[in-house]
Every structure is written in C-alpha cells, then in structure tokens.
Amino acid sequence: xxxxxxxxxxxxxxxxxxxxxxxxxxxxxxxxxxxxxxxxxxxxxxxxxxxxxxxxxxxxxxxxxxxxxxxxxxxxxxxxxxxxxxxxxxxxxxxxxxxxxxxxxxxxxxxxxxxxxxxxxxxxxxxxxxxxxxxxxxxxxxxxxxxxxxxxxxxxxxxxxxxxxxxxxxxxxxxxxxxxxxxxxxxxxxxxxxxxxxxxxxxxxxxxxxxxxxxxxxxxxxxxxxxxxxxxxxxxxxxxxxxxxxxxxxxxxxxxxxxxxxxxxxxxxx
Length: 270
Hints:
Layout: H1 2-20, E1 36-44, H2 46-51, E2 53-54, E3 60-78, E4 92-99, E5 103-106, E6 117-125, E7 127-128, E8 131-136, E9 147-155, E10 158-166, E11 170-174, E12 185-186, E13 192-198, H3 201-204, H4 223-226, E14 233-237, H5 238-244, H6 247-258, E15 261-262, E16 268-269
Parallel strand pairs: 1-13, 10-14
Antiparallel strand pairs: 1-6, 2-3, 3-4, 3-5, 3-8, 3-9, 7-12, 8-11, 9-10, 11-16, 13-15
Protein name: DUF4382 domain-containing protein
C-alpha cells in the first residue's frame, strides 16, 4: 500500500511540475481554445498601384483599377520559421483558414494614401502567425480573370488607355512578413494583421532602379504592350499576348506574374 501511495504521489508531483514549468502540447485547429483574438488579412498593391509610377522604359502609368482575385488563404504558426527559398514544407503548430472562397478586390481603391484593402477578419488562437499560403485564381464571374489592370500610360506625346487581363492560377507559399512593421502577432492585448503584397514593379520595372538590377532585369516593361496599342487604346489578355509577343518577352511576362505575390518584401514560393 505504501509503495502504491508513493507511486501516486510521484505521478501527481510530476504532473504538477510539468504544468508549473510550462510544458505545452502543440495547439490544434479544433476551435475549442478560449484564448483567441482577431487576425485581419489585407491585400496591398503598394504605392505603385495607389500613386502610379514610371516603368523601366519610361512610361508613366496610373491605375484606375487593379483587380485581383484571391482564394484559399491559410495562416500558420510555424517552428522553425518557414523559409520559402529553401526546400521543405511548412511545419505548423497551428493553422487557421482566413478565406476559403474566392474574393475579388480592387487594389487601387481609395486615394493615393489609402490603407491596404481588408480582405477578411477571423477569430484565431493567440500566437505569432509567420507563414501564409494563398492562391491567385480566375474570378468565376463574367471576367474569368485573376488580374485586371486598367489605367493610362503616358510617354512624351503618346497617351495609351490600357486594359490588361491575365488569368493565371498561382499558389503562393510564403514565410513571415518582411517590412517596417512586425505583423502576424495576435495577443490578449493586440489584434493581428497579415498581408499579401503585390509587386507590380516586377511586371513593369521601375525607372528609379538601374536597368541591370532587379526587378528591371527580369521585368517586361510597358513598351512591348504599348507596341500593340491601336489608336491610343490597348486591350490585351494573356492568351492573345502569347501570340503577339516574341517568345522571350512572353516568358518574361509569365515569370513576372509568378513573382507578383509577396508578404511585404518577403518572398513566396510558387
């Protein structure tokens, strides 16, 4: 009997010590946790979209609309932190669904100083969300495009009203947000935010960057699109561009679309 009591005592003591020293079991997504906060998902086209910019080949472009359709967005707490530039999968201790359906947003909405567009808000377990997966996919309505860019391009005396429609379906796997602010932290005293960022300078280039440097060295620019305009108007989509652009330029276009998705300045795997 004494031996049994000793065993029971030591088992109880071990359990108490484990609790006292903070041993934890990885959290799950069963939704039963009471320690929860709010996590917002925003989409950002940066100042390139909100304010316009000059492309690597000297076209000043401003956007009336920059439509993107995103879907199937998951946020993760990972340990070790996920690095999209290395091989291997996300090792998640926690995963939450931020968007399980397609949603279309206009990155150019608002004025030049507008905040990024709120796509979704979700109640989630507390913690640091340092990885994202998301999809760029064609909208299922009339447009059937994943990206629609409308605006005006100007160079010297030339003015082109353009509409560019692209329909790639791309799955992005991203690590932690990289930028001036720390994002992804959800605590009892602080709601969190994660961001998907679109780098359209990867498509058009940036006159403020030397031509031989990234992203200009991999960007299409606007001149190949301008060459297809008729009477000051350009309407183009990916399927027709494949035959209208030379193979090397079209390959640049496909690569640029693949590289649009970021988390701030953080890269994503496709």
